[in-house]
Amino acid sequence: MITGSMFRGTSIPVLEQVVNYAQARHQVLAGNIANMDTPGYQVRDLAPERFQSLLREAIADRDAQPAGPFAGHDDAALRQVSENLEGILFHDLSNDSIEHQVAEMSKNQMQHNMALAIMNSQFRLLQSAISERA
């Protein structure tokens, strides 16, 4: 987890949670594809709606705290989002198709790549500001 007051007001801690979620969901979806033909296997997923709700709540909690260099924030609310990923795992009792699982995996990969691209851009901006180059 990225810590420190330097990143608190940026989108970097939020993007970190999106990347963690996308990685965890990718593993679940890959397991679904690998076990699709296993008799009695129930499809699993990490609920995207629940993750987004937890993330929105964590952002609201973080933003409600007073700002400033000596406020002593540690983004505990954002840390709880990744700690609660197992709490949003569910078993789908439907007979899902492999095509649907692959489509979900593709969407998840795009979300992961987008979060990493934005995070990379944020770090490049910080590096430019530190080195005083534009």
**Number of structural units classed as domains:** 1
**What's the story with the biggest beta sheet?**
2 strands, antiparallel
N→C terminal distance: 28 Å
Order of helices and strands: HHEHHEH
Strand count: 2
Q: Please give the radius of gyration in angstroms.
A: 18 Å
Mean pLDDT comes to 81
Q: Beta-strand percentage?
A: 5-15%
Quaternary state, please?
single chain
Low-confidence stretches: none
Shape verdict: elongated
- Content-based structural category: mainly alpha
Number of helical segments with 4 or more residues: 5
* Main β-sheet, spatial strand arrangement: 1-2
Task: Describe what is shown at a glance.
By secondary structure, the chain is mostly helical. Helices cover about 65% and strands about 5% of the residues. It is elongated, with a radius of gyration of 18 Å.
Description of the structure:
The chain is mainly alpha-helical. The chain has one domain. It is built from five helices and two strands; from the N terminus they run H-H-E-H-H-E-H. It has helices spanning 5-8, 12-34, 48-64, 76-83, 98-131; strands at 43-46, 89-92. A two-stranded antiparallel ribbon has the order 1-2. It is elongated and about 60 Å long. The two termini are 28 Å apart.
